[in-house]
Write a structure and sequence with these properties.
Elements: H1 7-10, E1 21-23, E2 39-41, E3 45-50, E4 61-67, E5 71-79, E6 85-93, E7 99-108, E8 114-119, E9 129-138, E10 145-154, E11 159-171, E12 184-187, E13 202-207, E14 213-220, E15 225-233, E16 239-244, E17 257-266, E18 272-282
Antiparallel strand pairs: 1-11, 2-5, 3-4, 4-11, 5-10, 6-9, 6-11, 7-8, 7-10, 12-13, 13-16, 14-15, 14-17, 17-18
Length: 288
């Protein structure tokens, strides 16, 4: 393990694009206990369930979607304004190795034909809720409407996912800068890698410019590097997420405490174009 001299710097935050937003979906959290607000396409089943019958992220209900075909989805169709900024997101419970889910925006022109799409990262097989988002995207110049989808892809046999707490928002103006979208964000803190409480993993979401070289690392409170999640990654997409299980690079569960997750993105010439950090807590049940 090596030490870094940048720990004080890691505690700073980096502002980025800001947008004030307005929610556009109806019954986005499924609390009507009905499927009537959502249209189902190519699914084997689509049902509203409570905690006793399935998994619920918040409130009393969620949607259980099952597919035995290639792919299917539920959606709401929303009118949009060309050139304005939108963001779609939702929570997925995907503890099924036979498929995965995603949030998707299909942009439509006046005739209903597709003029493009934006898709979140895909869900992974974990026994905890996962937050998926398209991040903030701009409606195409010829878009008049869109379908906001909870999308399911089958990879083998049958897959079942639970989805809840969707959102589809529009900014208050064309390209206005009002509400923060962070370079890096942590879901599920504290988390419990000793598996005496849930969740056992934390979700790290990042958003840096596309086509940059990305480095994502975890440091302890003394500035010691304990885990490298991305090491000069050159994939084109600047948006992504990782589940961290609280282990170091040697596979050992780290002690209880505060850790700093840091991302840096640079161009091929070495010029840094984005950086950010967020804290996360590893916890453990108190012994009585």
């Amino acid at each position: 393990m090596k030490r870094t001299t940048f720990f004080i710097f890691l505690l700073t935050t980096t502002p980025s694009l800001l947008f004030a937003s307005q929610e556009l979906l109806q019954d986005r959290s499924l609390e009507s206990n009905t499927t009537s607000y959502w249209t189902e396409v190519n699914l084997s089943s689509f049902a509203i369930v409570n905690q006793a019958a399935g998994k619920v992220h918040s409130g009393l209900y969620s949607a259980k979607i099952t597919d035995t075909k290639s792919s299917g989805y539920i959606y709401q169709q929303i009118n949009v304004t060309p050139g304005y900024w939108y963001c779609a997101s939702g929570w997925f419970y995907d503890n099924d190795p036979n498929g995965y889910g995603a949030v998707k925006i299909d942009w439509l022109d006046e005739s209903g034909s597709s003029v493009g799409s934006d898709t979140s990262e895909y869900s992974t097989d974990y026994s905890t809720w996962q937050y998926l988002t398209t991040h903030i995207v701009q409606a195409p110049a010829d878009a008049e409407a869109c379908k906001v989808k909870a999308y399911v892809k089958v990879t083998a046999s049958t897959t079942t996912l639970y989805v809840d707490d969707f959102s589809f928002t529009i900014s208050e103006g064309k390209g206005e800068i009002v509400e923060e979208v962070k370079v890096i964000k942590i879901k599920d803190s504290p988390f419990y890698p000793y598996e005496d409480l849930k969740p056992h993993n934390c979700l790290i979401i990042y958003n840096v410019p596309d086509s940059t070289i990305k480095t994502l690392k975890v440091f302890d409170i003394n500035g010691r590097e304990v885990r490298t999640l991305l090491n000069r990654d050159t994939s084109v997409n600047g948006k992504g997420s990782f589940y961290w299980n609280g282990r170091d690079d040697d596979g050992n569960v780290l002690p209880v405490g505060v850790y700093i997750v840091y991302i840096e993105a640079e161009e091929a010439n070495g010029r840094r174009v984005a950086h950010g950090s967020a804290s996360v807590i590893i916890g453990r049940r108190l012994k009585r």
